[in-house]
From TrEMBL:
Localization terms from the record: Cell envelope
Signal peptide positions on this chain: 1-31
Main location: other
Record keyword Calcium present: no
Organism (species): Marinomonas primoryensis
Domain Solute-binding protein family 3/N-terminal, residue spans: 41-263
Gene Ontology annotations for the cellular component aspect, listed alphabetically: cell envelope
UniProt protein name: Amino acid ABC transporter substrate-binding protein
Length: 267
């Protein structure tokens, strides 16, 4: 079975993220709005471990969809940008604590996270999907999950969905990231995989993996948005304006073509 060495694993812990971030809100923070950033550098963060959205290439450079979106937005805003990576499980807390100005990191806009941060307009949409090996023909609905081993990445929305819906009917198994989970599926350690659709489709294409999506009915979709500290109205407005501009002038689609696939529509 093929190993997915081209990909970098991502370990998420959503509950810990939000709990840690909420805790940080009680601490003194360095609040920077747009004028402060114009006089300094726009500090943007992502995990650097979520290809094709953010990852480190063979030359050691932080690259990906989110990195290019950050640079395009900064250019529209007329500010200098520094895009860096930080472990996902502390990324919100680090921003709330003033270490970064914005997370452009494929973060789903959820009610729980809104307790800690403010989200811009969405910049793409991702949905959960069910994946099996190419020769699997007995998974066509949620009822077919019964007795199966279901994999998901710890802390991601897919893991949350799997835990909430198992009801003792299937056994959940967690992984540290997408490459590890795809290996688990193709080597038979799990029977079913729950993960966001876009990264898996890109990984299947780049690795020629014998994995297919199956339609089991409606699954959650989440808008991915840029998160910033609360009470930064000028920065929020500037980011939303810049986002609308890069969508209107074709810059956004060129970034989609580069990292997701020519002509892909992920809005």
């Amino acid at each position: 079975m093929k190993a997915f060495t081209k990909k970098i694993s991502q370990s998420l812990a959503a509950a810990a993220v939000v709990a840690s971030a909420v805790s940080m809100m009680a601490m003194p923070v360095q609040a920077r709005d747009l004028n402060d950033i114009r006089n300094d550098v726009f500090q943007v963060v992502n995990s650097g471990a979520y290809p094709p959205f953010s990852f480190v290439d063979i030359k050691g450079n932080l690259v990906g969809f989110d990195v290019d979106i950050a640079k395009a937005l900064a250019e529209k805003m007329g500010v200098e940008v520094n895009v860096q990576s930080s472990p996902w499980n502390g990324i919100i807390a680090a921003m709330v604590g003033g270490r970064f100005d914005a997370c452009i990191c494929s973060m789903s806009d959820t009610e729980e996270r809104r307790k800690a941060v403010t989200f811009t307009d969405p910049y793409y949409s991702a949905g959960l999907a069910v994946w099996v090996t190419g020769d699997t023909d007995d998974v066509n609905g949620l009822g077919d999950f019964s007795g199966k081993r279901v994999g998901s990445t710890l802390g991601e929305t897919g893991n949350q969905w799997a835990v909430e819906n198992a009801n003792g009917n299937w056994r959940n198994q967690t992984f540290q990231g997408l490459p590890d989970m795809m290996n688990g599926l193709t080597t038979g350690r799990i029977d079913i995989m729950i993960a966001d659709d876009v990264p898996v489709m890109v990984a299947i294409r780049e690795n020629d993996a014998d994995i297919k999506m199956v339609d089991v009915g409606k699954l959650p979709r989440f808008p991915a948005a840029i998160s910033i500290q609360k009470n930064k109205p000028e920065l929020l407005a500037a980011l939303n304006t810049a986002l609308a501009e890069i969508k209107a002038d074709g810059t956004y689609q060129s970034v989609v073509d580069k990292w997701i696939g020519v002509g892909a529509n992920i809005e």
